[in-house]
Write a structure and sequence with these properties.
Function: Specifically dimethylates two adjacent adenosines (A1518 and A1519) in the loop of a conserved hairpin near the 3'-end of 16S rRNA in the 30S particle. May play a critical role in biogenesis of 30S subunits.
Helix content: 25-40%
Mean pLDDT: 90
EC number: 2.1.1.182
Oligomer: single chain
Strand content: 15-25%
Keywords: Cytoplasm, Methyltransferase, RNA-binding, rRNA processing, S-adenosyl-L-methionine, Transferase
Number of helices: 12
InterPro entries: KsgA/Erm, rRNA_Ade_diMease-like_C, rRNA_Ade_Mease_Trfase_CS, rRNA_Ade_methylase_Trfase_N, rRNA_adenine_dimethylase, SAM-dependent_MTases_sf
Protein name: Ribosomal RNA small subunit methyltransferase A
Largest sheet: 7 strands, mixed
Strand order of the largest sheet: 4-3-2-5-6-9-7
CATH architecture of the largest domain: 3-Layer(aba) Sandwich
Number of strands: 9
Shape: elongated
Low-confidence stretches: none
Length: 285
């Protein structure tokens, strides 16, 4: 049975008397073309292990299992566990895990590298992606459907309103690309916003020269604390760091940054140079 068929999806919901929870961001895909494009973007083969977060009733899970990949589906809503087990019982390459993706240890689920593919609930998009990128899991690729606005911030270049802390955080760890736009009409129920599928190719090696990663992100966070102010004022007034104004001026001059520029104008490479200069001047304090 093809789960993503609209009538089949409705039948499953009716059979199990399921009322979708807005609090869990439950919007189920009912378009096979979109599902096929997601699987194609993920480039799944039977050699892959893929973790899915929030499988719902299993429409994407089913499509991924058909590639032969090992699929581990992590679902928070305990009402959906028996639904998934029943709908997907013909596949021997699917494992259903009841758990919270914000807390589960992915390295315990997978011995080795994995891909993360999901139609993510919007409310956990950023924390889930940043957790996967920052906590050292052996993830090689992340392909997720997210709110279009958030996807545009992840891929944003310097100079625009979308560029900020999230852009730099994602681009520090990966090479992000919006694969395609998804209209609200392919979901039950329909969300009020457009979605995108974003493809994050996780960097095997860091190509930025950063003396201290934690200090780098403190500088970035401080620079965007009041994004309408100049970089000089933002750094001197941010609560995350206690930076001496003279040292800020010295670091800005050393890197060749006009102190009147705003943080949104600085590339990630320039932020790396600035954080290194400040670290060397302050000793990381």
């Amino acid at each position: 049975m093809e789960i993503a068929n609209p009538s089949n999806t409705k039948d499953i919901l009716r059979k199990h008397n399921l009322q979708l929870k807005k609090s869990l961001g439950q919007n189920f895909l009912i378009d096979n073309n979109i599902l096929n494009k997601i699987v194609e973007t993920a480039d799944l083969t039977e050699e892959d292990t893929v973790i899915e977060i929030g499988p719902g009733i299993g429409s994407l899970t089913q499509k991924m299992a058909e590639t032969g990949a090992r699929v581990i589906a992590v679902e928070l809503d305990d009402r959906l566990i028996p639904v998934l087990k029943e709908s997907l019982n013909v596949y021997n390459n699917i494992e259903i895990v009841h758990g919270d993706a914000l807390e589960v240890d992915f390295s315990e689920l997978v011995d080795g590298s994995f891909k993360l593919v999901a139609n993510l609930p919007y409310y956990i998009t950023t924390p889930i992606i940043m957790r996967l990128l920052e906590e050292g899991f052996d993830v090689e690729k992340i392909v997720v459907m997210i709110q279009k606005e958030v996807g545009e911030r992840m891929v944003a270049s310097p100079g625009g309103k979308d560029y900020g802390i999230l852009s730099i955080g994602v681009q520090y760890h990966s090479n992000p690309e919006i694969a395609f736009v998804v209209p609200p009409t392919v979901f039950i129920p329909q969300p009020k916003v457009e979605s995108v599928v974003i493809d994050l190719k996780v960097k095997e090696e860091q190509n930025l020269e950063v003396v201290d990663e934690e200090f780098f992100f403190k500088v970035v966070k401080s620079a965007f604390h009041q994004r309408r102010k100049t970089i000089r004022n933002s750094l001197s007034k941010a609560p995350y760091m206690n930076l001496n104004r003279d040292l800020i001026d010295q670091a800005l001059e050393e890197v060749g940054i006009d102190p009147r520029r705003r943080a949104e104008k600085l590339s990630i490479e320039t932020f790396a140079q600035l954080s290194n200069a400040l670290f060397n001047l302050t000793g990381g304090e």
